[in-house]
Write a structure and sequence with these properties.
The protein is of the alpha+beta class. It has one domain: Orthogonal Bundle (Cytochrome p450). It contains 15 helices and 11 strands. Strands 1-2-7-4 form a 4-stranded mixed sheet, with helices on one face. It holds the Pfam family p450. This is Cytochrome P450 hydroxylase. Keywords: Heme, Iron, Metal-binding, Monooxygenase, Oxidoreductase.
């Protein structure tokens, strides 16, 4: 599969149905593991699709996130480009020792031990949301009713945000993670409103610290812009991605209902089922762009300095060279070293939180709604367009 640069494939690729991957992933993995693609902005980037190559680029400290001075490829130009073009991306340290220090400081809040302590509270939130969904009657939208609010409730709780402000947080997160659905003006307004709100919240924590992340960060001596960016970053990273993954996971498990039945018969499979759902997520899954100033060889292809690379973790997760029967959903698959949370210095900081939320919501759904099923055929589920993290527009279910 040789590439002519006149007609580069447009990225992201179109997939047939919401739960199926684009056919290009397998084709590129096999014939063109380092492909040139054209982004929505018209800029060109290198797309890397094989497991070993994706892992090596993500783990190599020489590949960094692009800085404004790098002349890197842009995801989008006419749209806001969402969080990729936000102030947050410039305030938080992206490289070197400062980045590692920031991660270590925040990472203390996302240990497995802390997550286990949060489990009962998460389960209570999930039960309340499911009860509300059931009270409205079937069919219901599991995404709007459970998947979307739950991660907001959890992160608001961790940041010490009053329950009454949860809905505002959800709206800001939605605007800031959209790539195409909002204008630059709407994006700027959301970012300003959010920044002002976080600034007020931080001032309140200084006056009266609580048992929350923001209060705990005050002694670190960080500037207000960095505290604000950290709060916004945690909400955005901790909300939309997990909300979409909850809906996609449940959809995958109900698309072939024998999977749901298997979990009902053996709830001990919840942990491995969550990991397998993460591995088989059929969304673009490229995370942040990577940029390299010198020449770099990947899969026998030399990428010249100044190349912007996109690592398709989702395509890599279906690489037969890394996973036996990679296109099959095996609820008991173990080990499962998928790359859904990335790898290396920029691997997802909140992965213990995401895993815990996914496990808890699945456990509670299996317990409270064993008869849960899709209210539409799986191939009629509709994908959200123009969102950095991809997901379903709604998840119609009945019970």
């Amino acid at each position: 599969m040789t590439q002519s640069h006149t007609e580069l494939p447009r990225f992201p690729f179109e997939a047939g149905t919401a739960l199926e991957p684009p056919s290009e992933w397998a084709e590129f993995r096999e014939k063109c593991p380092v492909a040139h693609v054209r982004l929505a902005s018209g800029d060109e980037a290198a797309l890397i699709t094989r497991y070993a190559d994706v892992k090596s680029v993500l783990s190599d400290p020489r590949w960094t996130r692009p800085t404004p001075a790098d002349n890197a490829a842009r995801v989008a130009d006419t749209e806001s480009g969402g969080v990729f073009n936000s102030e947050m991306a410039t305030v938080l340290p992206q490289h070197g020792e400062a980045h590692l220090t920031w991660r270590r400081t925040i990472g203390k809040w996302f240990t497995a031990k802390r997550m286990n302590a949060l489990r009962p509270g998460m389960a209570a939130m999930a039960e309340q949301l499911i009860d509300d969904l059931v009270a409205k009657g079937a069919p219901g939208d599991l995404k709007a009713g459970v998947a979307f609010p739950l991660p907001v409730w959890v992160i608001c709780d961790m940041l010490g945000v009053p329950d009454s402000d949860r809905d505002r947080f959800a709206h800001w997160s939605d605007v800031m993670l959209s790539m195409t659905r909002y204008t630059q003006a709407e994006f700027d307004a959301a970012q300003q409103d959010f920044g002002r709100y976080m600034g007020g919240l931080i001032a309140a924590k200084r006056a009266e610290p609580g048992e929350d992340i923001l209060s705990a960060l005050l002694p670190e001596g960080w500037s207000d812009p960095m505290l604000i960016a950290t709060g916004i970053g945690l909400l955005i990273a901790g909300h939309e991605t997990t909300a979409n993954m909850i809906a996609k996971m449940v959809a995958m498990l109900l698309a072939d209902r024998s999977r749901w039945e298997r979990l009902l018969a053996d709830p001990a499979l919840v942990r491995t089922a969550v990991e397998e759902s993460l591995r088989l997520d059929a969304n673009a899954g490229v995370g942040m762009m990577r940029y390299f100033t010198d020449d770099f060889e990947v899969a026998g292809t030399v990428l010249p300095g100044g190349t912007t690379a996109m690592c398709s973790m989702a395509a890599a997760n279906r690489d037969e060279g890394a996973f036996e029967n990679a296109s099959e959903m095996d609820l008991g698959r173990s080990p499962n070293p998928h790359l859904s949370f990335g790898a290396g210095a920029h691997a997802c900081l909140g992965q213990p939180l995401a895993r815990t939320e996914l496990q808890v919501v699945l456990e509670v759904l299996l317990r409270k709604l064993p008869t849960l099923e899709l209210a539409v055929p799986a191939d009629e589920l509709r994908r959200v367009e123009g969102l950095a993290v991809g997901g379903l527009r709604e998840l119609p279910v009945r019970w």
